[in-house]
Design brief:
alpha/beta; 8 helices
């Protein structure tokens, strides 16, 4: 399996862009544009070895009998191959019962307090924001518990935009953003 990862080609699919390579450049595939979920799966059947194909936000189409059947056929073609891999990324954990047993599910939990502290530190460093005082930082991290890193980043950005700093009252904004999510 380790050998298969060497020199692998990473391709990503999303509805608005179709298949793109690791740099975001469009990938031409046999059969024409792949900005349609059905054609995206058709293209995956023709991908060469050493391809990692990532389907982003594909979960809405898992309720379509046609696409579910195509996905099962694709899984059959990829099964046992360590030289091609299909990955479905979704913000929502949804799999129809009749396909759950055919997939390996990896559920990434929410970020830890340490992860959120890294996000806050990186955001401050990238934007040259002075970091919040330690007590405010602790309260913001507490307020951010249960948020994704993206949600926390947005909340911290709102605090900065409103106050051009990180005062104690900014913690309320983080809590309000979490409640809205």
């Amino acid at each position: 399996a380790e050998e298969a990862g060497r020199d692998a080609r990473l391709l990503r699919w999303s509805l608005p862009g179709g298949w793109v390579d690791a740099d975001g450049a469009p990938v031409k595939v046999e059969g024409g544009p792949t900005d349609d979920p059905s054609r995206a799966l058709d293209a995956m059947l023709r991908f060469p070895e050493k391809t990692i194909a990532v389907l982003r936000d594909f979960h809405p189409w898992l309720e379509s009998p046609l696409l579910l059947r195509k996905l099962r056929e694709l899984l059959g073609a990829y099964r046992g191959s360590y030289r091609r891999m299909a990955v479905l990324l979704s913000p929502r954990l949804f799999l129809p019962e009749d396909i759950k047993r055919e997939l390996t599910l990896v559920d990434f939990g929410l970020p830890s307090r340490e992860d959120l502290a890294e996000v806050l530190g990186a955001l401050c460093e990238q934007n040259k924001f002075p970091p919040p005082a330690e007590v405010v930082c602790d309260r913001m991290l507490e307020a951010g518990a249960g948020m994704t890193t993206f949600e926390f980043e947005n909340a911290i950005s709102k605090v900065w935009q409103k106050f051009v700093g990180f005062p104690a009252e900014g913690v309320r904004i983080v809590f309000a953003e979490k409640a809205q999510v």
